[in-house]
Amino acid sequence: MDSHEHQTTSETKEKGMSGEFPFAPYMLPEDSYTGPEDKGLTLFNQKYAVRVASTPLTPEELELVRGHLEDIFHEEASLAMRLHDTFLEGWARNLGMAPAPQHQDIDSMKWFPDICDYANKHTAVYFVSGRSTHENFDLRDWLDHRHGYLDHRLGCYIYRKWHELHGGRPNLQRWHFFAKSLRLPESEAASWTIPSLVAAHRRLCDATAARLESEVVHLRINYPPYSSFPVPTETTRTWREHGLSLHYLFRAVILLADENVLPVECPVQPNPNISGLQQLQTVGPWLEQLMPECSVLLVRTGDDEHLSQPVSFEGLIKEGKTIPLGLEESKLANEFSVVRVKIDVAMRFLFDLQAQEEAATPRLREASAMLTKEREAGCHAWVESVLKHASIKEVGLDGNQFTWEAVRRMWAKRDGEMFDYFKQNETRLRSIKLWLGQF
User: Fold this and answer.
1) CA distances (Å), 293 to each of 154, 262, 267, 437, in order?
2) Helices (H), 190-307
3) Which partner from 33, 34, 129, 318 sits 20 to 30 angstroms from 348, CA to CA?
4) Does residue 339 sit in helix, strand or coil?
5) Residues 52, 318: Cα–Cα separation, whole Å
6) Contacts of 430 (CB under 8 A, 6+ apart)
7) Domain limits, the chain
8) Burial class (CB within 10 angstroms; exposed 0-12, middle 13-18, buried 19+) of 239
C-alpha cells in the first residue's frame, strides 16, 4: 500500500490510501473478470491446461470448484502481502528493517516505516547479531556465510510457518501478522543486553499503544474505486477505532535472533562438491532443511499482568523443547524467563498462547471471531461473483481466469496431481530460495 501522511490540524492526521496492502489484502468482488492470460505457462501442468471445460459442472463438482476458488482468494492475498515492502524489504537488515528504539524515550520515539506496521503484531523479532547478513555481499562466499542463512530467509520461513499454523488462511487484514522485525544497530551489537532490550521494548509498547489509542486519523481513499477488501471507512477516528492496536501478546514475549541463530554444529551442511553458480541452483532443497534448525531466544518481558495468567516456559522445559543456554543467558534466565528454542517451537508457543487467552477472555475471543467472519464473508462474496460471471453463456468456465484455474485444479487433484506448481506448492507460497526474487 502506498500511503502519504501529513498533519492537517493539531489533533487530526490524514492518511491517503492509494493501494491495497497491507490494510486490505483481499480481492473485492467485480462484475466481470478477464480470461486466462497464458495457458502455456510452465508453472501450469499442461496435461490439464490444454483440456477444455466442455460440459456443465455437476453439483458435486461445483462445490469442489468453489473450494478451489476459496484457496485462490487466500493465495492471492498471501502473495500480494509477501511482495509488499513490509515483508519484501522489512525482514532484511540491509534494506528496510526497522531499527530498535534503543535510546529513545516515549516523546522522541520513531516508528519505521510508520506506526501502522507496529499494529496487530503478536510479537517482535529482534535481530541482534553483529553483522548484517547482506553487508559487503560477495557471491563467492555467499553460501559459506553461516551455511546460507540470511535474515530475510528466516522472515520467509516465519511467513510460511504462520500460514501453515492457520491452515493457509490467517487473518491478514489491517496489518495482522505474527511479528514486527527490528534490528539492533551494529554500533550497539557488542554491548546489548537482555535487560536493556526488554526495557527498550517496554518503552516502545507504551509509546505505540498511546499513539494508536489517542491519535485521530482520517483515512482518505486517493484513487476510488478502492480495489481490495476490507475497504477502509473514510471517517475520522483513532487508529484503534480503525482496527489498529497494540496486540495483547506484543508486550509479553519477544524473540531474539542472535549470533547463535544457527547451532555451532549445524546438522545441515552445503554440499562441498558444489560451487559457484551451481550453488544458486541447488540451494533451495537444503535451505528447506536448514531453516527449521534456526533457534531464537524466547524472552518473557514481565509485562503480562493484562493476560489471564503469567507467561511461563515451564511446559517447554518439561517437554524437552529447549536448547541449552550460554553462560550469560543462563544468569538472566530466572529474572527474565529466557529459553532458547527452535523457531517452530517459538511460533507454536505464541500460537497456543493466543488460543489460551482467547479461551479465557470473551472480549478477545469475540474480536478474533469477528476478524475471521469478516474475512470469510469477503471470500464468499468474491467466490460467488466469480461463479456468477462464469455462468454467463458468452463467458463460461474457460472465459474467466479464476474458474479456468479452479476447474483444472479440481481435475488434477482427482488424479493425485498438482496443476499450479507456483501457488499450490509449499503451503501455497514461494520457496525460501526465491523469497526476494533473487538467488
Assistant:
1) 11, 7, 8, 23
2) 194-214, 277-290
3) 129
4) strand
5) 57
6) 79, 82, 422
7) 3-30+39-428
8) buried
Determine the residue type at 265: E
- Position 336, amino acid: F
pLDDT at 133: 44
DSSP structural state of residue 408: H
Give the helix ranges, DSSP H, for 241-326. Answer: 277-290, 314-318
Instruction: Output 95 or 298, whichever has higher pLDDT.
Output: 298
Global confidence as pTM:
0.87
Give the up-direction half-sphere exposure of residue 256: CA atoms within 13 A in the CB hemisphere.
26
Q: How many CA atoms lie within 13 A of 417 on its CB side?
A: 13
Phi-psi region of 148 (alpha: psi -120 to 50; beta: other; left: phi over 0): left
Number of Cβ within 10 Å of residue 213's Cβ equals 14
How far apart (Å, rounded) are the C-alpha atoms in residues 337 and 358? Answer: 23
Q: Indicate the residue type of 173.
A: Q
Rounded average pLDDT over 356-385: 97
Which cell is 178 given? 505474527
